[in-house]
Amino acid sequence: MNDIVHDDDSHARLDRLAEISQRLLARARALGASQAEVSCSEEHGLNVSVRMGEVETVESTRDRGVAVTVYFGQRKGSASTADLHESSLEATVEQACAIARHTEDDPAAGLADAALMAREFPDLETWHPWRLDADEAIDLALACEAAGREADARVENSDGASFGSGGSLSVYANSHGFVGRERETQHSLGVALIAGRGDGMQRDGWYSIGLAREDLEAPVAIGRRAAERAVARLQPRSAPTGEFPVLFSAEIARSLVGHLLNAVSGGALYRRASFLLDSVGTRLFPEWFDIDERPLLRRGLRSTAFDADGVATRDSALVAGGVLQRYVLGAYSARKLGLQTTGNAGGVHNLQVGANAGTQDELLRGMGRGLLVTELMGQGVNGVTGDYSRGAAGFWVEDGALAYPVDELTIAGNLRDMFARIEAVGSEVDPRSHIRTGPILVGRMTVAGGE
């Protein structure tokens, strides 16, 4: 397999997208727009899937798109196209202008302030193309599945393995004179396996994801870990009912951070649909608890020098000493709230949850008796009240060690209480997300099992 791409034309393609954006901005000005912004993108990818040693799908994709937003004072219009011919681009700008002329004034509409635009564009090492053909991609998926199926005789079936590799190029430009270019690759490999027979079958899997080939775990390691996880779930029992410590494994713990993000995002706040209204400066977590945003992290899964408004990003604390430091805002939501953008139009960039404890095994020993959650089901989270109730599966813990697998149980609480009751964050970080956290131990939750 050829790791080095000698004919990389990504910079030339970015130049073309930037040139298109400038033509569209000029046309918007000529049609009377007071402000305008343009997003241009190209994406390509190769995705394959196999099951039980046979190829199921091979898909090669190439997509592109242009989105134009214009402002006539505080009236906004948007239109998009996937056709880059001149006539289609011209029609897209005209359509956006026509829409803006017929919309109502929105006091929060408009570009972010020009003074906030990014001016430095460091190489964040997000571009690592992997040139391989469909046969090589299929071989990787087959090797991953075969390793899992061969790892344990109790693995008798498979839901399949998949491999994906792709890249994206994008340009965002606006009438402040800002032009931002980004290029990113992403590669993934995973498998889902089925252990046991009949009513006793259990399914689990594992996957790896990264910006570069060398960031991925080896196919054999992924397959074996998937097999271990599936076999470990065999012969589940009911969990006791009561209030117990609950340890969220690292890959599940990031969902707790996700609920925090939803509650402090601009959209939820200006709609008054959050249980954390007016919470900046309030202690939500224990005093040792920190969450930092690191958008300029090299080779991070969500690294960028500017947000979707062109605003410069910077390292900053979201939670420090347990206290919520700020909300998560783009220019529009900030204006709706009478605040300043935090450079988060389009979302957050590389959150790091600080650890105060060791490995997951050490956390288990410390909790004594309780529940390790490795899977969550359902959507039972009320963003307005913070009430939390979700189906779960995992392992019952006795005397600080895994005793037996459990499923068909419910864990419940209120997110505000759960945040305050966090007792530990482990050091073993799951790297497969832009939310990087170790296992999180909540000191007390309601567990409803069958016992």
UniProtKB/TrEMBL annotation:
Sequence similarity:
Belongs to the peptidase U62 family.
Where do the Metalloprotease TldD/E C-terminal domain residues begin and end? 241-449
Fetch the NCBIfam families from UniProt.
PRK11040.1
Under which main EC class is this enzyme filed? hydrolase
Q: Keywords on this record? A: Hydrolase, Metalloprotease, Protease
Q: What is its EC number?
A: 3.4.24.-
Residue runs in coiled coils: none
InterPro entries per the UniProt record, alphabetical: Metalloprtase-TldD/E_C, Metalloprtase-TldD/E_cen_dom, Metalloprtase-TldD/E_N, PmbA, TldD/PmbA_N, TldD/PmbA_sf
UniProt key word Ion transport: no
Gene Ontology MF: a single term: metallopeptidase activity
Per UniProt, residues of the Metalloprotease TldD/E N-terminal domain are 36-100
The question of whether Hydrolase is a record keyword is answered with yes
Which gene is transcribed and translated to give this protein? pmbA
Instruction: Write one Pfam family the protein is assigned to.
Output: PmbA_TldD_2nd
What is the official name of this protein in its record?
Metalloprotease PmbA
User: What region holds the Metalloprotease TldD/E central domain?
Assistant: 128-234
Q: Which Gene3D superfamilies match?
A: PmbA/TldD superfamily
